[in-house]
Design a protein that fits this description.
Layout lengths: L1 H27 L4 H8 L6 H10 L8 H14 L14 H36 L4 H14 L3 H14 L21 H37 L3 H8 L4 H13 L1 H14 L4 H6 L5 H10 L3 H29 L1 H6 L1
Helix pairs in contact: 1-14, 2-3, 5-6, 5-8, 5-11, 6-8, 7-8, 8-10, 9-10, 11-14, 13-14
Length: about 325
């Protein structure tokens, strides 16, 4: 219990520091919302009218910085994230995030979990049968693919499966806009088809790291005394591989997986941009392009909370899986 309380205190302290940086960093960026709106309206609206418009949307450029900071912290905690001052001028930030969040969770979340599960299983088998065919072929191949840039793999898949094949798989947006959204077979099929290429991009570029780390962890764990004891007791290879070796080898990977789950919320910005996929990553790109302070701050806060929460859950899972951690706690 004491260990969990310390971790919770660290969580709150880190969250406060991240929220503070989240407040100041956008204000140190070049440009301002007034300038961005002035350029977008091509000078048809006076700067004074633009500032008045921004004030009505909750952005007060002439307010004392301390008052802005206190108002900002209160709004972040209570969920009053203001209105967008970017392309979707006047739209509530919560509405924009609510529209983009399910697409990011469905695409990046599933791809991240699949990459971890498949990479872990392949790594376990490769480490258990070190020097075999699986260990010789798959890890080097996937390590090379994981080093490839996201956008390059995305463009290559578009070229092969969309351009060269005459549109076998769609390469743009999240569903066919001629279909009315709903839980109909046609709409669900369209969503799945549009998710194939971006999901494959994420899977191909991320699975190699999990395979390599799990394989190396397995090789290290197989040399431990408790594995030798299991063999001496006459336990089956299956039980030794999963209950003795894999259960302990996966522990170092949990922290990395927790970080990956946290970053799921942020989406893969490059992947969503290349495929014009309306997730949180694409939303963040547009917010930065349009100097949309309210939307940027809400998104950064959401990303921070997601990462910290995932790390906290990882600590709890480690305590459950590793008796040594419970004893130290």
């Amino acid at each position: 219990m004491r260990h969990l309380l310390r971790r919770l205190g660290f969580f709150l302290l880190t969250l406060w520091a991240a929220l503070t940086l989240n407040f100041f960093i956008p204000r140190f960026m070049p440009g301002s919302p007034v300038t961005a709106l002035h350029d977008r309206t091509r000078g048809k609206v006076s700067p004074a009218a633009l500032e008045q418009m921004l004030t009505s949307f909750g952005f007060r450029p002439h307010q004392n910085i301390g008052s802005q900071y206190l108002d900002y912290l209160g709004n972040m905690v209570t969920g009053h994230w203001g209105l967008s001052i970017g392309q979707t001028l006047g739209e509530p930030v919560t509405t924009l995030i609510g529209q983009a969040l399910p697409w990011t969770l469905g695409l990046v979340g599933i791809a991240t979990v699949l990459a971890f599960v498949l990479g872990t299983l392949i790594g376990v088998l490769a480490g258990w049968r070190r020097g075999g065919r699986l260990d010789t072929v798959l890890p080097p191949v996937f390590v090379v693919t994981s080093a490839l840039p996201y956008f390059w793999v995305a463009l290559l898949l578009i070229l092969v499966f969309s351009v060269w094949t005459g549109g076998l798989l769609p390469s743009d947006f999240n569903y066919d806009n001629t279909i009315v959204p709903g839980f109909s077979p046609g709409f669900v099929s369209s969503v799945l088809q549009h998710a194939v290429l971006p999901g494959a991009t994420l899977l191909v570029t991320s699975i190699g790291g999990w395979i390599l780390t799990m394989r190396n962890n397995m090789i290290t764990v197989l040399a431990e005394d408790y594995v030798r004891m299991g063999r001496a007791k006459g336990l089956s290879n299956r039980r030794i591989m999963y209950d003795y070796a894999a259960r302990n080898a996966i522990l170092p990977n949990l922290s990395g997986f927790a970080m990956s789950l946290g970053f799921v919320i942020s989406g893969a910005i490059l992947v969503e941009y290349v495929f014009n996929y309306p997730g949180l990553g694409y939303l963040l790109y547009n917010a930065v392009q349009n100097v949309d302070y309210p939307l940027m701050q809400a998104l950064f806060m959401l990303f921070t909370v997601a990462v910290l929460a995932a790390v906290l859950v990882c600590d709890i899972a480690t305590l459950w899986l590793d008796p040594r951690a419970r004893a130290k706690g």
